Amino acid sequence: MSLKTKDPQIYDLIQRERKREMETLDLIASENFASKEVMEALGSILGNKYAENYPGKRYYGGCEIVDQVEELARDRVREAFKLPLDWHVNVQPYSGSPANLEVYNALLEPGDTIMALDLLSGGHLTHGSPVNFTGKTYKFVHYGLSPKTGKLDYMEILKLADKVNPKLILCGYTAYSREIDFKKFREIADKVRAVAMADISHIAGLIAADAHPSPIPFFDVVTSTTHKTLRGPRAAIIMCKDKFATAIDKSVFPGMQGGPHINAIAAIAVTMKEAKTAGFRKYAEQVVKNCKAMAHTLQDFGFKIVSGGTDNHLMIVDLTNKNITGLDARKLLESAGIVTSQSGIPQDPRKPWDPSGVRLGSAAVTSRGMKEKEMQKIASWIAAVITDPSIAAKVKQEVKRFCKNFPAPGL
Ligand code: DSN
After folding, report:
1. Which band of pLDDT confidence, cut at 50, 70 and 90, is reported for residue 1?
2. Radius of gyration for the chain, computed over Cα atoms and rounded to the nearest angstrom
3. Architecture of the CATH domain 287-403
4. For the CA of 96, the nearest atom of ligand 1
5. Domain range annotation of the chain
């Protein structure tokens, strides 16, 4: 029997979500379309198996095959990110937030000082937001973006590091559109003898395809989700220098997790194989070109982009000159078939739920085969709807027709 006959309610909800994904434009910077093959591994019988601990030393019998799955995933991560021989990989974190907690738990004591970017400037909840466990457990000191440029100000970060003497400096963001100078972060970390950690969840696909510089040559530990620009399953990885391997492995299991999700680990392996292909490289290059094209067109329509543009897959649109808040803009655009997320802007006077901007990303639409011309069209729709909300329903129909020409992988 199929899902359709056994559980028509869930089947129907999946079909409705499929239709929504097909008929709308996904500009959420953290979303993408995983391939059929990734989903096949994710939905496989591997999910039946318990395998606590690591290959060759499990607490359960019957792990001889899943050991090979995990080893293959680790090897492929090494290849995809060109890891030096003295680096270690852990593919067991359930997702990005646990991966970050597992690193802190491995390398720090509660109350230790961590430097990171604040949430409204583009940091993540697990980068010490006061409402998050991390903000309650460690002493986060946040650096911001330059009020003048909207970019990282490495001199200011160094000054702050000198003052607060952090044990760990974190970079890598959820809403920062500019290239990160990892070498400069390393120099700052060295000056204050801090561990250098990068959370590359957003830009991992670009890094694997050499469309953004990699922190690996300079850093101590790197975390990443596998589902954003990387286009894999909802899961995460930790890569670190060998000297941190034992502490990090112990922190993942038994420190913070139980049995790894072997089906997700198999899907990570498939993702890493895909990331090595010429097609993926082309996709990643196009993601960046598309984002720049969308930003330029929006700027032509008078939109302010934080930092003046983008070097990666996302941008933050500052709506303060458009007389609309981030939440209202997100809702309005959604009624036109354009799906985004609200976002803070640097030094945002508004609160995170209804901040002053929206975040736009180009990864998912690039996976559908859209190029610069289509990005210009999408930006024109955004400008038109924000200027005249009464046309939203009409634009929604146009978007639906437009989307038919760009089938999404995996749907
Ligand atoms: N919530 C994700 C994002 O949208 O960027 C990060 O985990």
Report:
1. confident
2. 21
3. Alpha-Beta Complex (3.90)
4. 7
5. 40-274, 287-403
